[in-house]
Amino acid sequence: MAGHARHPPFHLAVALLLGLASLIIPPTSRAQPPPPPVTVPVGLIIDADSPVGRIARTTIPMALDDFYAAFPNASTRVRLLQHDSGGDVVAAASAALQLMTTQGARAILGPQSSVESAFVADLATRAQVPVVSFSATSPSVSAAGARFFSRAALSDGAQAGAVAALAAYFGWRRVVPIYQDDDYGAAFVPFLADVLATAAPAAARAEVPYRCALPAGASMDAVAAALYRLESQQTRAFVVHARPALAELVFAAAADAGMMAEGYAWVITDGLTGLLGSIRPPQGVIGLAPHVPDNNTPRMRAVRRRWARAFLRDHPDADPDQAEMGCYALWAYDAAWAVASAAERLGPGEFSKSPPGLVGGDSGGPTDFSGLGKSASGEKFLAAIANTTFEGLAGRFELVDGELAVPAFRIVNIMDDARERSLGFWTPEHGLHRKMGEPNNSGLAPVIWPAESTVVPVGWVQPTSGRKLRIAMPGAVDPGYRPIMHLDVDPATNRTVAGGFVIEVFEAAVRLLPYALPFEYVLVDSMLYDSLVERVGNGEFDAAVADITITANRSQHVDFTLPYMTSGIAMVVPMRDQRSNRAWVFLKPLRYDLWLVSFVFLIFTGFVVWAVEHRVNSEFRGPPSYQIGTLLYFGFSTLYFAHREDLKSNLSRFAVVVWVFVVLILQSSYTASLTSMLTVPQLEPAIGDYASLWHGAGRVGIMNDSFMKASMTRSGFPQARLVRYRAAQDFHEALLNGTIGAIVDETPYLRLFLNTYCDNFTQTAQTNKTGGFGFAFQKGSPYVADLSRAILNLTESEEMSSIERKWFGDAEGCASPQGSQFTSDSLSFGSFWGLFLITGANSLLCCVLHLATFLVASRRRIREAASAPGVLWKDRFHMFLKLFDDKDLSSHTFRAKDRGRSANDAGASPGVAHVAAGSPLSVSNHTYDMSDWSVSAPSPAPAPAAAGEVELAAGGGHTEGEVAVAPDPEGISDRIVAGHQEGQ
C-alpha cells in the first residue's frame, strides 16, 4: 500500500501536464466565436387596424427575416420598435418623438398616412433621423420640404399623367375627381387638373369642371347626397382617390344612385387598386397599379405564398381573398430591405456610437421638442439609404431626390370578385400601349364598362333635369340680311322662333352631338358684336349664335368653334360703260403683236410678188420709187382685195392666193371683234381694286355693327371717309346717288346684296381673308370641341350644301345675266400663228423656186461675171443685181408683146425687134463696152440677116448707140457664136 502511495496514478500526471501546458501556451491562440451583430433600432409607426397597417405588420418583419437569411453573416441587425398611431396625427408625432429620444431609433419606417408623415418628417429632420415611408403617397410631403424624408412608394402626382392619358384615349373632355378631403386626397387634385389642362396635343386636353371633396369620416348619407348632386350634373367620367373606407361608401352610394350603369366611367388610383381585396369595387372600373417587372418569377411566387400564409396567421379574421400582395405590401417589403441593406453597408462602427437623444440627458421628456440632439450617423445613414439600389419585389429600388423612380403603370379592368384583367401599360415616355416593351403597339385592350357595356362612355351627357343653355342672339335684323339670321317673337305665345343660315347650321350641328343639348334662344338688343362677345365671356350668356367673325381680339374673351362659313373682305362698286370713252377702239380688236406680224407679212408678201414678177411683168418695172410704191400698194391692197396688178407668174399667183385666204380670216375676225366692242356694253368696275379706293377721295360704306371700321382704321384708311349703314337698301341708294363710291364688307353680306341688286354693281377681288363665322362660348366650355367636330362632319356632308343653297341660292352674285360685266379680249398672234406659218412658208417657197429658176437660166452669164479678172467684189455684186433686174426677154409675155409690135412696124425687117427702155438698170443712150464681160475671143462676123439673128444697124428709128435685138427664142444666136468659134 505504501509503495502504491509513493507512485501517483497516471491520469493525475496527465492532468498536471495539461495544466502546465495551459500556463505556457499564450491565450491568443485560443479559438473565439464571432462578435454578435450590432443592433440597429428602427421605429415602425403604423395604424395597426387599417388595411395598410395590417399588411405592414406582416410584410416588414418578413422582409427583415428574408434579408438576414440571405446574408447570415451580417454585422448589423435591425430591431423593429413598433408603435400604433391609430391614425391620429398627435399619436404618430408622439411615437416618433419617443422613438428618437428615449428608444434611440436610428431610422423610422412610416408613418402610414401623409398627414402623419408631414409631422414626423419635420421632427426627424430636426433630429437628423431618416424617415422612410412606404405608404405616404401624397405630394404634400416630400424630400423637398423635409430633407430626411424618403418616399419608398410612388407619388400620387406621378399617376396624374396616366389618368390624363386615359381621358385623352377615350375622348373624355371633362373629368370629375372624387377625393378624400385631407392631405392625401386634396394634394392630388391640382396635379391632375394641371396635367389634364396642359396635355399635348391641344385636342386631347380636358378640364375639371367641379370637384367632389368628401371628409374622411363622412357618413353614408353625406356621400349619397354628394353623388346625387354629381348625377344631376353633366359629367360621367369620375376619378376616385380616397382611402379604402371612404371608397367603399362611394361605390355603394354610386350603385344606389344608378351611377354604375351604362355610360358611366370610373377610374381608381393605385392606392385603391393595391387594396382590391379590401374595397371590392364594382365591375367595369378601371384601375391604375405600379408595374412589377418580375411579377411571375419563381422568387416572386415563393414570396407571395409565404406572405399569404403569414398574413392569414397574423390575422385569422382576414378574408382569404385579401391575402394578396398589393402595391403597399411590395413597397413595405422593399423599404425594410433598403433600411437593412443601408445599415449593413454603413457597418457596426457607426451604430456603436451613442444614438441621438436629448441634449444633456432625457430630462426634457418626450414632449420637449427643443431638446432633440443630433448625430453625424444620421447624415451617413440617410446617404446610405439614398444610395441603395437593388432589384426589389416592386421593381428596381432607386431613390431619385428622395422619391422612388416611376417605371410604369399597369392599366387593369376590375371584374367580378375584384379580379384584375390587364388592359395595357402607361409610361411617361411612350404613353399607353398594350404590351410592355412594345411601345409601337399603342392602345389598350377592349374595356368592359359598368353594366357589362362595351360601348366607350362619351364622358358626359346633358341630363333632362339640367338647365338649358342660354344662347344669345342679336335682334332687329335688317330684312335684307334675313337669309343669314333672323329671330321673331310670336306675340300670341311669346315664343321665340329663329331661322336663317346661321340658325340652321347651329341646330344641325347640335343634332350631330352624341348627347342631347337643351338650349333656348335669348333675344338681346342690337349691339356691336364685340360687346356681345364680352357679355358671353362675363358669364351673362352661355353662348352666342350669330354671324360673328372670329378675330384675335374676340378670342381673348370667348372660345370659338371651328368656322362654319369661310369669309373674306371684298368690295362692291358700280359698273360703268366704257364704249364712248375710247377714240382708238378700232385698234383694240387686234393685239399689238398681231398688228405687227400682219404688217410684216404684208411687206413680205409684196416683196415676194415683186421679186417674182418684176422680170416678166412691166407693171412691176420702172424707177425705183415707182417699184417700191407698187410693192407696198400691192401688199396693202390685198387687205381689201383691191389689187389690180395683172400677175404673170404662177408662183406669185400661188403666193397671193394663200395670203388672201389668211387676209380673209383676219378681216372676218377683226370685223366680228370690233362689232362686239362697239355694240355690246363694255361694263367695268368704277373702282378697280383696293389701291384705287385707297388713293381716291370717295366715301366708303360699311355695315353698322361690323368690325370693318376698326379694321380699316387700323390699316390707315381715313376714318372720315367711312359711312356706316344698317340696311342693304341704304347701301343701294347711297351707291346710286353717289354718296359712297364702294361698299367694303365680308363676302357673305355682299353676296346677299348682289343677289338683290345686281344690275349695276359688281364685286371686286378679295383683298384678304378673315377667320370666318364661328359660334362663341364661354372660356373652357366643353361644347366647343364637340361642336367643332360636329361642324366638320356637317361640312363634309351634303346637308351643308343644301342649307347654303336654300338661303344663298345656287350661284354667287347675280341670278340673271342681264347687266353682267362683259369683256372681249383682243385677238392675239397666238390665235393665228398657224395661218401665218402657212402663208410665210408658201411665199418663201415661191421666192426660192423663182430664184433657183433664175440661177439655172442665167448660169452662163453669172459664171462669166464671176470669173472676170480684175473686177472688185462690189462690181461683181452690182453686175449680178443688174442681171437680176433686167427683163427676161425669153419670157412669153415679152415675146408676145414684141411680136405684136414688129408686125405693126412699117419698113422694118420681120426679124428685127426693137427693145424700148425698160428697167432703170438696162443699157440706154450709151455704148455698152463688151470688154466688161471679159470675152477674149473676137466678136463673130456678121451673118446674113435672118429671122432671129442679131442686127446691129443704124436706122429703123433707133438712135446711135442703141442696141436692137431680134427675138431668139430658139437660142440660134448662141449656136452661131459657138460654131464660129469652132471654125476659128
From TrEMBL:
Its main location: membrane. It is a multi-pass membrane protein. Residues 470-810 form the Ionotropic glutamate receptor C-terminal domain. Keywords: Disulfide bond, Glycoprotein, Ion channel, Ion transport, Ligand-gated ion channel, Membrane, Receptor, Signal, Transmembrane, Transmembrane helix, Transport. It comes from the Eukaryota. InterPro entries: ANF_lig-bd_rcpt (IPR001828), Glu/Gly-bd (IPR019594), Ionotropic_Glu_rcpt (IPR015683), Iontro_rcpt_C (IPR001320), Iontropic_Glu_rcpt_pln (IPR017103), Peripla_BP_I (IPR028082). GO terms for biological process: monoatomic ion transmembrane transport. The keyword Acyltransferase does not apply. Residues 944-953 have a biased composition (Low complexity). Residues 1-31 form the signal peptide. CDD domains: GluR_Plant. GO terms for cellular component: membrane. Residues 934-984 are annotated as: Disordered. The keyword Flavoprotein does not apply. The chain crosses the membrane at residues 557-573, 594-612, 624-642, 654-672, 832-857. Disulfide bonds join C758-C814. Belongs to the glutamate-gated ion channel (TC 1.A.10.1) family. Glutamate-gated receptor that probably acts as non-selective cation channel. This is Glutamate receptor.
